[in-house]
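FIELD: query
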Amino acid sequence: MNIPEVKPSLCFPGKSEVAKEVAEITGKKMSAVEDVIAGVRCSRREGNVAKKYAYIGYRTCAGANLAFGGPQECQHACVGFGDCATACPFGAIEMVDEFPVVDPVACVGCGTCVRTCPKKIIGLLPRAARVWVACSTKDSGKRVKEICQAGCISCKMCVKACPAKAVNLEEIVAIDHSACVAYGPGCGEACVEKCPRKIFRHYRPGEEAAQRAEAVSA
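FIELD: result
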């Protein structure tokens, strides 16, 4: 317990309250604990992404990903076999029509799903985040338009619109949530308004989960 490299904040369900107590017991310095939640950065269901082949084999995302990147036409899309749901120790992920939906109440932000996903499309987002992007594509805009009706086309309208300079695009769109939150709502969520694909969205975990469950089961 007194190993310096071991942080006192490793009990994810306990959050900052437990981290504070552990820090006191072990005599370690308490650092800020950010409350985070898992977010699936993919919209293949809304985008009507087709399958490029019928996968026949052991139904795991890791296994299917070895066969030409999985059955989805988008190489960066959720495979849909639920490795994340199986791995989650808190039962916070439900597979709805082969797509993961995160329960914002049950999720403690432990990151197990993040480490499990072979596509690396699940990330931990601050619960205080104002906006997010439900897409992980690294393809060109032209390619995205061919295979997905919802994916990011790398137009950079969000980057240009953000007055806080909190959005950048390298391989995928990345948001500096600290800068975004610090700037506040005065920008009117310009990134959301300017996005032509509506893939830049307001971040409301409870509503998002309900909407996604409804969308993928429709």
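FIELD: remark
The mean pLDDT is 87.
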